[in-house]
Specification:
Blueprint (H helix, E strand, L loop, with lengths): L9 H10 L8 H28 L6 H17 L6 H22 L8 H10 L5 H21 L8 H5 L1 H64 L1 H17 L5 H34 L6 E4 H11 L7 E5 L3 E4 L1 H18 L4 E7 L3 E8 L20 H5 L8 H11 L3 E6 L5 E8 L4 E2 L2 E2 L19 E11 L6 E9 L2
Helix pairs in contact: 2-3, 2-4, 3-4, 4-5, 4-6, 5-6, 5-8, 6-8, 9-10, 11-12, 12-14
Length: 489
């Protein structure tokens, strides 16, 4: 036996729901204004009904006296500000409906006074709320059906209606339903207009907020350029002036000193320009990395070799790990971290790479003063520079660590800052693991640029762990500690 569903299909219910207004969408100010007006109308019915009760033949009946008290009490309930919107609107609605029933009763069911119900339904629809609206429609239908059976002469004033109260209650109900559909249509249209207005206002606020942020960032950038670019430009101009005036009289050592200062200032300008251009690329089109398998330990050596001023007292603990990321962007990340450590940290420095379960980590540490506690939450913000950094001699855009975070995110990685137990800073960049990457074991099939050749023949090389040994760093008196040395396995 086939079971007949007792509920309508979801698509039918969804269609009906989409056609009906949601309700409760009026802004507070609009609702309060409409409620004040409807409450005033409800209170005005009290003296009008009282005056009619004094002059009409049925004015002295007990049911009219009870009705008048009920109308006043309901109007008072709607005027109580501590109640919810639904309760206040429902109280005012009932006050108006009872007033209508009393008017019809006073005039012996005069048909023309039934129009008052239509006016009340239209007024109640102004609340844009389902509770008072359904309460109004239900009251009208119940009043015609129940009172038409119990006291038909109080509802109708002609013999046909009093003889067939249910049928005429249906006729009145059809007209009330037609008016209700008209009110619902207007209600839905008004609700859609309010939604569109709200969406436009939100979009305008978002655009305004974005413009405010952009203007603020432009102001910050201009302030940075006017302040931090002045120092290297002063050095370059000063050295150029000395060179033009006294170059023949300078010995080789003085000349190298002057050119070194010019080179340092030029590198500082280049760094600021590179960071600003990278930021512009992020804002314009976002970052589009081209990930490949990249050996982090080799990238570390490449970056350190490209630095104009090698770090002193540097310890390297580099596992031959492979990251799946954009090589140039990872190089940029590492360069910014090393430069940041050199600017604001202090020796000894340490750089390490390691492989975890599903990702690899690049760690840069220094033994400097660390990051102030109150500045740590803003460490990776755009243009963020601590008060100590602003007061110091080091110049910068405040974009270095922000770009580190954004470049890491673009490569599905993360960046975090940790305070070292003995003082200093530790920055940890986590990136997705690429290729066969096990701590202490690397397949030789990864060629020098980190990619995997098509052929897979030939012997493999294993890296075996050996005790740390000290090797003099090239071109400096610092010591580099190597963790893994190649050897046949």
């Amino acid at each position: 036996m086939r079971t007949v569903p007792t509920t309508p299909p979801r698509d039918v219910r969804a269609a009906v729901t989409s056609w009906l207004p949601r309700g409760g969408t009026l802004p507070e100010r609009s609702w309060q204004a409409r409620h004040r007006g409807l409450t005033t109308i409800a209170w005005l019915h009290v003296p009008v009904l009282l005056g009619l009760a004094l002059v009409r033949p049925r004015g002295g009946t007990p049911e009219l006296a009870v009705g008048l008290v009920l109308v006043a009490l309901l109007a008072l309930g709607g005027s109580t500000p501590r109640s919810s919107r639904t309760l206040r609107a429902s109280a005012v609605t009932l006050s108006l409906l009872v007033s209508t029933a009393l008017l019809i009763h006073l005039f012996h069911g005069m048909i023309e006074l039934h129009f008052h119900f239509f006016v009340v339904i239209a007024l109640v629809a102004m609340y844009h709320a389902w509770a008072p609206y359904l309460l109004g429609i239900g009251f009208v239908l119940a009043q015609h059906a129940v009172m038409g059976l119990v006291m038909p002469m109080a509802v109708y004033n002609h013999e046909a209606a009093m003889a067939h109260p249910v049928a005429f209650a249906g006729v009145h109900g059809l007209f009330v339903l037609a008016e209700s559909l008209a009110c619902l249509t207007y209600w839905k249209a008004t609700e859609q207009a309010l939604d569109q207005e709200r969406e436009q206002r939100l979009r305008a606020e978002e655009v305004s907020g974005a413009l405010a942020v952009a203007n603020r960032e432009i102001s910050d950038l201009l302030a940075m350029i006017s302040h931090d670019l002045r120092a290297p430009l002063t050095v370059i101009n000063g050295c150029a002036e000395v060179a033009l005036d006294s170059w023949p009289e300078l010995d080789d050592s003085s000349r190298r000193t002057f050119m070194g200062k010019v080179q340092t200032a030029g590198l500082s300008l280049e760094e600021m320009l590179e960071e600003t251009l990278t930021l512009s690329a992020i804002d314009a089109d976002g970052l589009l990395p081209e990930p490949t398998s990249a050996r982090l330990d080799r990238l570390v050596h490449d970056v350190l070799g490209a630095l104009g001023h090698p770090l002193e007292d540097l310890e390297l603990q580099l596992d031959p790990v492979v990251a799946f990321a954009d090589r140039q962007q990872v190089r940029h990340v590492l360069t910014n971290l090393v430069t940041n450590a050199a600017k604001y940290g202090a020796p000894p420095y340490a750089i390490s790479t390691r492989a975890l379960e599903r990702h690899v980590e690049l760690v840069v540490e220094d033994a400097g003063p660390g990051v102030p506690v109150d500045f740590a939450p803003r460490l990776f913000d755009r243009y963020a520079r601590s008060d100590e950094a602003r007061r110091g001699d080091q110049r910068g855009t405040g974009l270095g660590l922000y770009l580190v975070q954004e470049l890491s995110r673009a490569n599905d990685g993360t960046t975090r800052y940790e305070q070292r137990a003995g003082g200093g800073s530790r920055f940890v960049v986590s990136l997705p693991m690429g290729g066969p990457c096990l701590t202490g074991v690397v397949d030789r099939h990864h060629d020098e640029d980190g990619s995997t050749p098509s052929t897979t023949t030939g012997p493999s090389v294993r890296w075996r762990r050996t005790p740390l040994r000290e090797v003099p760093a090239a071109g400096s008196g610092s010591t580099v500690q190597l963790r893994a040395l190649p050897g046949l396995g």
